[in-house]
Design a protein that fits this description.
The protein is α/β, with parallel strands linked by helices and about 325 residues long. The protein is built from 14 helices and eleven strands. Helix 5 runs antiparallel to helix 6, helix 5 runs parallel beside helix 14 and helix 11 crosses helix 14. The chain starts with a strand and ends with a helix.
Length: about 325
């Protein structure tokens, strides 16, 4: 095992035997969700189809960010797979955080947000942090005794709005292209330039497979006609067959499984776009640029949706973890 990387015995054993493993990121835990308990459980968590173990993670006054980490792992286990939650603790990249380690990371106020570029540097400094999509894909590639084939997340990064004036493309896109892992995602975050993101993925040669949809999802919203995927999968087993064929012939490239948010929990695209326009106007007014833009846009979306964006975000993350586990199990028989 490479220095600075530790793999949980449960994850290592599953990889050795060809068992179903799903990687999970932790940037949403360290930087994405509130550190206070939810005032009320959102609709997805009290839905009859949501496993009780997932709901239990948010009960008892647990902070929302900590609860999410445990809920994602519970969602993967509920579908019969092994969760490999990735994060960095004191310079060690851990693939398969324990319950106590996840709690420790969630409680840190100085945890870094770690893309693939930052992980070696943070390791050298003995730092801790949550991994982004690109950072988690690095862990998938470095896992032993075999790479992790499935990674479930919410929305990937992409091409930022205003690219023509200030080029800004997330490292996620190249990481997806260069890592032969299936990334289960609800498309790209709505605050991005989604048509440009789809074009960039096409340029990179990354297949976009829609799970029961012909459209590339808009993270918290369903996709629309101008955003098309490369292929549709009928169900998780079909998605696994498509990825197995892709991996056999293009073993150096990843694939996206695009999962729209469940219709009963999705937000309306018109509301999102209106909120984003308002956020961009605020950015112009205060002179926000680069990484300063995203918090302004997220605040505008939260305000416009009356907080519903957080509830939908949770539904997307947990649902995708469940889908990822089903695909991982289906891959065993392909």
């Amino acid at each position: 095992m490479a220095r600075g990387i530790r793999i949980a015995p449960e994850v290592r054993d599953a990889l050795a035997s060809g068992g179903p493993v799903v990687a999970l990121e932790t940037a949403a835990v360290t930087h994405g969700l509130p550190r206070e308990p939810l005032a009320t459980l959102p609709p997805y968590l009290v839905d009859a189809e949501t496993p009780a173990s997932v709901r239990a993670a948010f009960e008892g006054g647990a902070a929302a960010n900590r609860a999410l980490g445990h809920a994602l792992a519970a969602a993967v286990r509920a579908e019969g797979a092994i969760p490999a939650t990735v994060g960095m603790l004191r310079g060690e990249l851990v693939i398969g955080l324990t319950t106590a380690e996840l709690d420790e990371l969630a409680a840190m106020r100085d945890a870094r947000k770690l893309s693939a570029r930052e992980i070696p540097l943070a390791a050298a400094r003995g730092e801790s942090g949550g991994t982004t999509v690109a950072g988690t894909l690095l862990a998938c590639a470095r896992a032993e005794p075999a790479p992790i084939r499935v990674f479930a997340t919410g929305g990937i990064g992409g091409v930022h709005r205003g690219f023509a004036e200030r080029p800004d493309v997330s490292a996620d896109l190249h990481a997806i292209r260069n890592t032969p892992t299936l990334v289960v995602t609800a498309g790209a975050k709505s605050i991005l330039d989604l048509p440009a993101t789809v074009e960039m993925l096409d340029t990179l040669g990354v297949p976009l497979v829609g799970l029961g949809t012909p459209y590339f999802p808009r993270f918290l919203c369903a996709g629309t006609a101008e955003l098309r995927v490369s292929e549709q999968a009928r169900d998780e087993r079909d998605a696994a067959a498509l990825f197995a064929a892709h991996r056999e012939m293009r073993g150096d490239c990843g694939m996206l499984l695009c999962v729209p948010p469940l219709a009963r929990f999705a937000l309306e695209p018109e509301i999102m776009e209106s909120a984003i326009r308002a956020g961009l106007e605020e950015c112009s007014r205060i002179g926000a640029h680069g990484p300063e833009v995203t918090p302004v846009l997220l605040a505008a979306v939260a305000k416009a949706t009356g907080g519903a964006s957080l509830a939908t975000n949770l539904a997307v993350l947990i649902h995708n973890a469940r889908v990822g586990a089903r695909v991982a199990r289906a891959l065993q028989s392909t």
